[in-house]
Amino acid sequence: MDHFIYRKGVLHAEGVSIAKIAAQVGTPFYVYSTATLERHFRLFDEALGGLDHLVCYAMKAASNQAIIKTLAALGAGMDVVSGGEYIRAITAGVPPERIVFSGVGKTRAEMEMIVSGGVRQVNVESEPEMELLNTVALKFGVQVPITVRINPDVDAKTHAKIATGRSENKFGIPISRAKEVYGLAASLNGLKVVGIDVHIGSQLTDLEPFAQAYRKIADLTHILRQDGHEINRLDLGGGLGIPYSRSNETLPLPKDYGDLIKREVGHLGCEVEIEPGRLIVGNAGLLVSSVIYIKEGEGQKFLIVDAAMNDLIRPAMYEAHHEIVPVNEPPVGQEPHTYDVVGPVCESGDTFAKQRDLAELYDGDLVAFRSAGAYGAVMASEYNSRPLIPEVLVKEDEFAVIRPRPTLEEMINRDNLPVWL
Ligand code: LLP
Q1: Which of 63, 138, 148, 215 fits a 20 to 30 Å CA distance from 378?
Q2: Is the pLDDT of residue 289 over 80?
Q3: How far is it, in rounded angstroms, from Cα 307 to Cα 324?
Q4: What's the CA gap between 101 and 114, in Å, rounded?
């Protein structure tokens, strides 16, 4: 469920007309709904009710300060994967004890930043990383709480580019080597083992892979406890999928996922963390764009819009489907028109949808790409010298530009000329 609905024939974000925002901000832009963000966070929080838990929003999905602050105000923790995300979280006022540091290639500089600034735990992914973190911890005279990310060798049954839990993926330590690696961790004075971490992939539409992975983690918890390790915390990762199209709206809900967690690991007496990103922000955001031209091809009609693959790369990168809806509600009973929806970038890959049935559209009409809140703005680039597009946040009847569109001058002035030019 989200808060993007037609009112009096015009698509609204909560109480604000998308057409009104477009008139003031210009297209293309991203717009997020506060009520939807808050609702999705609470669904997870409630789903884990009864367990000692912390929902750590995976900031990589959308990391604008306003989004982080909105979620932090509800008690969210943050899952960060770089020094940049850590500083974003701190700047938004998230207490360090609610920040979890994940990632497969943490640098020494990043470790020094988070060890000196404070962190809830570091999820360690390899032995060399563990040894470097130990060195950094000893330098600062502290003990850093850690988990080890376990690769459970489970097929998440999602797109290959976002599956992370098979042994051939670069993530985590093979479960077969867990005993040995926890043994190493226990021997390092700068580290304090607090638990286990696992994350098997993103956009999971079936709960079974989670169940398989969490069962393995539960078994491992017993084994490691027998070895004398204090396993009091399980970070179970993110990954719950969202409906991108109306045909797959029967996906598992946070409540089902929470029940599964309770069933698989609830008896262990551990504090549970989860790291959802997409489900919190994905359907809380739209990408709004204008039709520039309609071009008649040989066998198809191209709807050329002013957003492109540099603004939303998911279709080009993952063959992702995003629903496209007109901002002006089409009359009931109108025959659909079929379009290839494309952007202006000079690549055939800059195609949002092929042979998509939409309302009849004209030059200048506004369209919205749904489910664009997660991995949309954060993955944008300035390819073709197209400036990053604005982000807008709506709350009830108000809206605010939470990241303005840079001018062309600002974009170009970031370049420096060497002395010889
Ligand atoms: N935790 C870890 C360690 C992760 O690597 C990720 C996502 C998450 C949590 C959050 O997963 P989520 O709940 O959002 O599924 N750009 C891709 C998705 C990449 C996901 C990367 N890791 C896309 O647009 O589909």
Answers
A1: 148
A2: yes
A3: 12
A4: 8
Query: Which run of H or of E encompasses 356?
Result: strand 351-358
pLDDT of the residue at 399? 98
Cβ atoms < 10 Å from Cβ of 225: 13
Collapse the DSSP code of 229 into the 3-class scheme (helix H, G, I; strand E, B; otherwise coil) and give the result. Answer: coil
Choice among 235-239, 332-336, 412-416 with the minimum mean pLDDT: 332-336
User: From CA 374, how far away is CA 393, in angstroms rounded?
Assistant: 14
Evaluate whether 307 touches 369 at the Cβ level (below 8 Å). yes
CA of 282 to the centre of ligand 1 (A): 11
Question: Locate tokens 């997660």: which residue?
Answer: 374
Helix (H) or strand (E) holding 53: strand 53-58
**Cα(140) to centroid of ligand 1, in Å?**
31
Look at residue 1 in the predicted model and tell me its pLDDT.
67
Residue nearest to atom 7 of ligand 1 (CA): 202
**The pairing of beta strand 391-395 with beta strand 398-403:** antiparallel
* Count, residues in the chain: 421
Q: Which of 109, 346, 419, 421 is catalytic?
A: 346
Place of tokens 């600034």: 117
Residue 364 half-sphere exposure toward CB, CA atoms < 13 A? 1
